[in-house]
Amino acid sequence: MRAPLPLLLLPVLLSAAESLAPTAVTIAGQPVPAVADGDRTTAWTGTAGVPVDLILDLGPAVRLNGLHLHTGPAPGVAQQVTVQAWLQDRWEEIPSATLEGNTAASVALLFDGTFEVTTSRLRLHLVGAPGAAPMVREVTVWPASAGAVPALATAALGKNGKPVLGDDPRIPRLYLNQSGFNLGKPKRFTAPTLADGTPFTVRPARGGAPVTTGVIRGHVGGTKATGHF
Known about the structure:
2 domains, mainly beta, four-stranded antiparallel sheet
C-alpha cells in the first residue's frame, strides 16, 4: 500500500475559514487582479521610491476582523503599512493595522475590538524600502463571519521564487490516498493536527466558487462525488 500523498499536490486550495474576495482591486485607478487572485506566485510591482495606495472594493458593507498581506520578497517588502476603511464617506485609519520598519514579507493585520470595521472598501498605503520597488503578491481579507483571523501561513520561497508549501510548519498537513485522484469520485483526506469542528473550504486553484465546504470530524474531511477535479 502506498503512503498517503499531501493534499497540497492537488489543484485545489483548502482554508480553515472563508475569506472575502474583493469585487475590484485598483492602484491609481488601474485594476490589479494579481493582488487578490489567490496565487502568491503572481504579483504587482511598483516604482522605486513611489508609495502605493491599494484600494479593495468589497461590495456591500461587511464587518471585518483583519487581513493577511504578502509583499516582497526583499527588497520589495513593504516597510510601512497603513490600513484605512471607508467609513461615513471618508477614509479612517485603523489604529491596530499600522506597521513601521517592517521587514517581514508576510504579515497579519488584526482589527481589534476597540475599532469596529464595517465597510465596503479598504485602502492600504504601502511604502517600500529606500530605492526599491514595492511588490504586492496577495491580500486576503477576513470577514467577522469567518471567526478569528487564521494564523498566518507564510510559504517559504524556493530558488525559483515560488512558494515551497511543505517547508512551513504553520501550514497544517493534509493527506489524501492516491485513489482520491479519480475524477468524479468522492475525495477524503485526513488532518491529524486539526481539531474536530474545524471548518474547511475546497476551491479550484485557478479561482472561482468553492467546490465544497465542511468541517473536520475525527481528523477526517472530504467532498461529495464531483467532476470538478
